[in-house]
Amino acid sequence: MSEQSTAASAGNPPPRWILKLFTRAHLLLYRLFRGRLFSTLAGDPICIVTMTGAKSGKKRSIPLMLVPHPDGLDSGVLLVASQGGAPRHPVWYYNLVAHPDIVVEAPGKKLRLRARVASPEEKKVFWPVCVEHYAPYEDYQQRTDRDIPVFVCEPRAA
């Protein structure tokens, strides 16, 4: 393989089927061990987010990096729609826009939250918090021309 083709493929995500397989396996193991195992990815904490599909209307669960709300986990979480700096938003972005009521599972917690995209002013405050919890987000933002959205997920009104 030439240097150019190696460099060109270095920034590309793995094939979608590999990501789906990895996601399903991680989700299964996380739930099997009730979050006591498989609650991290490369040493960083994750949460399981259950949402409704924008097109299908089916429940979907995915592991995402856990960024607690600055006021604490009981106040919610921040979800970063980075997709590793890809040029497009992840599919789950559209799910949350269409159906903002979600359930977030973190070790020892199950939170019923409502998601909304942070305003530009809020993002200025929340982005450094996200990067503090998962430093690669800064690199992801440098890889893409799109403004990576941050969802503010707060407890639903009863």
Quick rundown:
This protein has helices at 3-10, 16-32, 91-98, 120-133, 136-143, and strands at 40-41, 44-52, 59-65, 67-68, 77-80, 101-106, 109-117, 150-155.
CATH topology call: Pnp Oxidase, Chain A
Number of strands: 8
Radius of gyration: 16 Å
Mean pLDDT: 85
In terms of topology, how is this protein built?
Layout: H1 3-10, H2 16-32, E1 40-41, E2 44-52, E3 59-65, E4 67-68, E5 77-80, H3 91-98, E6 101-106, E7 109-117, H4 120-133, H5 136-143, E8 150-155
Antiparallel strand pairs: 1-2, 2-3, 2-6, 4-5, 5-8, 6-7, 7-8
What does this structure look like?
The chain has helices at residues 3-10, 16-32, 91-98, 120-133, 136-143, and strands at 40-41, 44-52, 59-65, 67-68, 77-80, 101-106, 109-117, 150-155. By secondary structure, it is of the alpha+beta class. It has a single domain (3-155), classed as Pnp Oxidase, Chain A (Roll), CATH 2.30.110. Strands 1, 2, 3, 4, 5, 6, 7 and 8 form an eight-stranded antiparallel beta sheet that branches. The chain is globular and about 40 Å long.
